[in-house]
Amino acid sequence: MTGVYMSIFKKNANESAYVGGKKHWADVLKNSASGDLLIWRMPEEDFNTNSTLIVMPGEEAIFVKGGKVEQVFENGTYQLSTDNYPFISRLRTAFTGGISTFNCVVFFVRKADSRELRWGTESPIQVRDKVWGVRTDVRARAVYKVRIENPAKFLEKMVGNNTDWEFQEDLDYYFAGEFQGRIKSAVSKFLNALEQELIGIDAYMDELSEKIQPYIGEALSDYGLKCVKFTLAALDVDNTKYDQIDKSQVELITRQRGYQGDRAGLDILGSDWNKVQGVGILKDIANNNSGGSAATVGAGLGMGIGAASAFGAIAQQTFAPTAPLPAAPQPAAAPPAAAQPEQDPVEVLAKLKKMLDAGLIEQSEYDAKKAEILSKM
């Protein structure tokens, strides 16, 4: 930086020297720097004790002597005199040419909001998805704005760290390293506390930004700064494990659709899922006429006696030839002994239709059995 825009921490060679036979002191103190300067240091360091200080809105003037803040002035116009401001007496130097002067460094600090500062994770954040129970990596990008809330504290911190903070680029560069870990920690705490799955986390960007901002504010307050805005620009979730989950779900859905036929078969037997294996056995029997009776095969495969009997009865009712309707009894004959109840053809046809819909029998088998039953009616 050249001319009046000299470094804020470099000593002014003219502060107490005569140049061209004239003392270099200032009668008016005001910020004459360009608008992109965050902090501006006046090149002069000797001032008339009756000089005028002008502080524009949105800035403060800070008088520093020997690394110590002597006085802070907010916006307004001030007549600097020992009567009005006793601290000047401590800074006063010898009379020169009948003029009483004092020596110090004057900084003008702009309190307006900074431009947007960019932030991003240098390394991934490890987060555990509570919905799926998997650990994954998340990267985040954000922008934020700061305001110098306490210029004196800010200046003391920066002067103490010997940090060059003239331009907003300096602010951006400094915070890029200083607050990288703090912001990352805040994001990690929030994400690991989420009850929702991380896929679709973009829906919570505003909420996340609001929750993180106080964490950033705590970190900045040590520097006399305030976070006035923090906005997440992106959250990039590693989808590798979620792709595996999606693949498993597709396979599961495929298997479930394959079981739909078995479920329809259960409607015939009842809703007892313990009998689901029997549905598969009936299907095998329907496709293998030489397989023997359902009861025999069921027992041979280790089925329970009750389940084997149930499936045997259904198989016998369905595949055994339909008995002809009995002839009308002779009036003079004695009542016949108790016989098995007749099968209702409609009921048998309904069962056959359910088994066809469930895929337990072929269409040709259904048609043949249907024709047989109808021929008996």
Please give the structural blueprint.
Elements lengths: L17 E2 L2 E2 L2 E5 L8 E3 L4 E10 L3 E7 L2 E6 L2 E4 L7 H5 L9 E3 L1 E6 L6 E4 L4 E5 L4 E15 L2 H10 L7 H11 L1 H14 L11 H17 L3 E13 L2 H19 L1 H10 L6 H11 L7 H7 L4 H15 L25 H13 L5 H13 L2
Parallel strand pairs: 3-5
Antiparallel strand pairs: 1-2, 4-10, 5-8, 5-9, 6-7, 6-10, 11-13, 12-13, 13-14
CATH domain topology of the largest domain: Tetrahydropterin Synthase, Chain A
Largest sheet descriptor: 4 strands, mixed
Mean pLDDT: 70
The secondary structure category is alpha+beta
Per CATH, the superfamily of the largest domain is: Band 7 domain
Low-confidence stretches: 1-24, 290-308
How are helices and strands ordered from N to C? EEEEEEEEHEEEEEHHHHEHHHHHHH
- What oligomerization state is this entry in? single chain
The CATH architecture of the largest domain would be 2-Layer Sandwich
What is the gyration radius calculated from CA atoms?
46 Å
The top level CATH class name of the largest domain: Alpha Beta
Q: What's the number of structural domains?
A: 3
Number of strands: 14
**What global shape is seen?**
rod-shaped
Portion of residues in beta strands equals: 15-25%
